[in-house]
Design a protein that fits this description.
The protein has ten helices and 14 strands. With 345 residues, it is an alpha/beta fold. It has two domains: 310 residues, TIM Barrel; 32 residues. An eight-stranded parallel beta barrel has the order 1-2-3-8-9-10-11-14, surrounded by five helices. A two-stranded antiparallel sheet has the order 4-7. The longest helix is centred in the C-terminal third of the chain and has 30 residues. The N and C termini lie far apart (54 Å). It comes from Brachybacterium vulturis.
């Protein structure tokens, strides 16, 4: 069975069910380089044509550019047929307008700046301003965005309770926290206030150990996981793993490249590709509800939708598991050897 056979979204009323594949709109905010209007139009249209009905954005993405672009492109589709998630925690305030935002990764003018604010007033203001940029009366999901990078204590003491109240008031259907820090997400899950976490790059084909405690907490508390950055910033994005492949937005260590190539070999033996495995892997865990992939062009959308529908043999996953188990044993042996050497000094 392919991951595409999982339940589809139910965007209207009733329980919030996420589709296996969601559209990440950071690239619509000119992530790293400018995205043309033609690329944005084509990407959203291709997503809709491929059956993708969940779209994720944030004020942070291009200082509001992603929300504005996404909202304009979704305006032609029936609102009850799709889900939108956005994020809170960074308010957008008037900026100098004399340069660009490339220091934060976005090729847009710096006509606004970000200001951390997880207070209840800040969360509600961020939500209202996002609705205005999106041109919508409501969004379905609100995530507290990267609380570990801002005022973490305020996020937990004020932001999460505010989100829970907004859900109770019917302003949103689900609330959560988005982060690459699995410990922060585990702490958020244990508050009992949230429905979802968006986990970046910590539960992938290549990397799972950092998320082990989080996965258990999510199962115990009935919290769903939205997995993002499942290609580990490029290392798993191509079947042929290049010597200069990136991991965590830097040159991948030789050990990581070797492991990625071993996984690519498994994929090839079973008639699939490394990206096929990478896209579908997170959904094998019962806590993972959806994988959201950042997509800039129609070609990328069609390629990722196809990957989600590939039939991956059970034997391929068994081989992946054996490889992971062997890697863990090797890591444990190295750690034990290092401890022994240190003790002998």
């Amino acid at each position: 069975m392919s991951a595409a056979d999982a339940p589809a979204a139910a965007p209207g009323g009733g329980p919030l069910v996420l589709p296996p594949l969601g559209f990440g709109a950071a690239q619509l905010g000119n992530l790293y380089r400018a995205t043309t209007d033609e690329e944005a139009d084509g990407a959203v249209r291709a997503a809709w044509d491929a059956g993708i009905r969940c779209f994720d954005t944030a004020p942070h993405y291009g200082i509001g550019t992603s929300e504005r672009r996404l909202g304009r492109r979704l305006a032609g589709y029936p609102r009850q047929e799709y889900l939108v998630s956005t994020k809170v925690g960074r308010l957008l305030l008037p900026g100098p307008g004399t340069g660009d935002d490339l220091a934060n990764g976005f090729a847009v003018p710096d006509d606004h700046v970000r200001a951390w604010d997880f207070s209840e007033a800040g969360v509600r203001r961020s939500h209202a301003e996002s609705l205005e940029r999106l041109g919508l009366d409501s969004v379905d999901i609100l995530f507290a965005h990267d609380p570990e990078e801002g005022p973490t204590q305020q996020a937990f003491a004020e932001g999460l309770p505010a989100l829970a109240r907004m859900r109770e008031e019917g302003l949103v259907r689900a609330v959560g926290v988005g982060s690459k820090d699995a410990d922060v997400l585990t702490r958020a899950v244990r508050t009992g206030l949230i429905d979802l976490v968006m986990l970046s790059g910590r539960f992938t084909l290549l990397e799972q150990d950092a998320a082990a405690e989080l996965l258990t907490a999510c199962v115990d508390h009935g919290v769903g996981i939205v997995a993002v950055s499942v290609f580990n910033s490029g290392l798993l994005a191509r079947h042929r793993v290049a010597d200069d492949a990136t991991y965590e937005y830097d040159q991948a260590p030789a050990e990581m490249i070797a492991r990625a190539r071993e996984l690519a070999g498994i994929a090839e033996r079973h008639g699939v590709t490394l990206p096929d495995l990478a896209v579908q892997f997170p959904l094998r865990h019962p806590a993972v509800r959806s994988v959201v992939l950042g997509m800039r062009t129609a070609e990328q959308v069609r390629s990722n939708a196809q990957r989600m529908g590939v039939e991956i043999p059970a034997a391929a996953w068994e081989d992946v598991q054996r490889t992971e188990d062997a890697a863990r044993r090797a890591d444990a042996e190295r750690a034990q050897s290092t401890e022994g050497a240190d003790g002998g000094r």
